[in-house]
């Protein structure tokens, strides 16, 4: 049981896609379950439209979660867990304001101490608490860490040890009673039976805290694997809030979902960047132990070239529904003919228009005689893949032209372009009447 747990506070970027895909693909490969869990307890920053966009972007990548949960709908479970922690003396009220905490941290820094919460609130007497509450102060609630060494065998990083004595007791519940991400995440990972958590290495410290909370709740922690983070080519970290390298923008730029997925998963690993035919093929390449420890730069150029390479290898059956939706006909023969020339999928539509819609032959005055003579040599139908070769041989023999002077005017007349798919494949798709008309500079 694996999960992807984004907060719906912005559009997913390729770094989020890396996390989502690693989880989804490991689940897929192992016959496990993959859930999408929206970390939306921060009502000030979460937005329904981002939650919708996340599900849509995952669908675009080809990921269909087995279930979707919203933490905002599970608050009662978190309240119950908080009550248990309070009863066990592991969750205590603290009354410092943000300003007071900031002041404490500043003083600690000037004394050369780490800015760790001093647990002053733990020492408050009942009467002192009552006095603070009488002033109108509301508590936030901190988890009392055990101050021990928390260890786990990380799927990417190997054996890990964190001394929780070096950490501040984490705030689990805000002053207004709302939950920060930590407790809901722990409660859900236990309740939902998550067995492996794959997430970014920015969560390594959280993991130590979460293992302590899981222990305090009597649960068995899952296994953890923290992957390296992707950055912009400049080295700057990716931000959902700033809209860096969003899946939406890559999709709008015409990038292929399988190319984005392959790049998101393979960049920053010891495996070469390579096009894949399907998510199953990509799942077969996933190996947590191949993920590097250092942050990895993500170059959008890599996706662009991978998009072209992906298209060049996509089998017709995979793209048939998309071709149909785009109004592109010609079946497998057309796809085979053009796929090697596509930079983006939409190029298939332009080639289809060039083949199947009436357009005037692009004939330069100097070539008109040559092309009309070539038209006269066109064999009768039916045409097949060998027609072009036989015809061009005859044209060559009669005109005496060769090389560019022979091929170029013909390609221009037939397609209106300088380069493109092999004419041998296009000719049968275009048909004799159209080819003959275009060679004569007419509309065909
Ligand atoms: N909402 C957290 C994040 O997006 C979830 C981390 C986790 O996977 O537990 O970073």
Task: Give the topology.
Elements: E1 2-4, H1 14-30, E2 34-38, H2 48-61, E3 67-70, H3 75-87, E4 91-94, H4 98-110, H5 126-134, E5 140-143, E6 149-154, E7 158-163, E8 171-173, H6 182-191, E9 196-200, H7 204-216, E10 223-227, E11 230-231, H8 247-252, H9 257-266, H10 279-285, E12 296-297, H11 300-313, H12 316-325, H13 331-338, H14 347-356, H15 368-376, H16 387-399, H17 403-415, H18 423-430, H19 432-439
Parallel strand pairs: 1-2, 2-3, 9-10, 11-12
Antiparallel strand pairs: 4-5, 5-8, 6-7
Helix pairs in contact: 1-9, 1-10, 6-7, 9-11, 15-19
Domain Aminoacyl-tRNA synthetase class I anticodon-binding: 374-440
Catalytic activity: tRNA(Glu) + L-glutamate + ATP = L-glutamyl-tRNA(Glu) + AMP + diphosphate
Binding site for ATP: 240
CATH H-tier superfamily of the largest domain: HUPs
**Stretches with pLDDT under 50, minimum 5 residues:** none
Q: Give average pLDDT, whole number.
A: 97
Number of strands: 12
- Termini Cα gap: 58 Å
The distinct ligands, each listed once, are: glutamic acid
Report on the biggest sheet: 3 strands, parallel
Question: What is the 3D shape?
Answer: elongated
Helix content: 40-55%
Count the DSSP helices. Answer: 19
Summed up, the domain count is: 5
- Computed CA radius of gyration, to the nearest angstrom: 31 Å
Which CATH architecture of the largest domain?
3-Layer(aba) Sandwich
- Supply the CATH class of the largest domain: Alpha Beta
Q: Which structural class do the helices and strands define?
A: mainly alpha
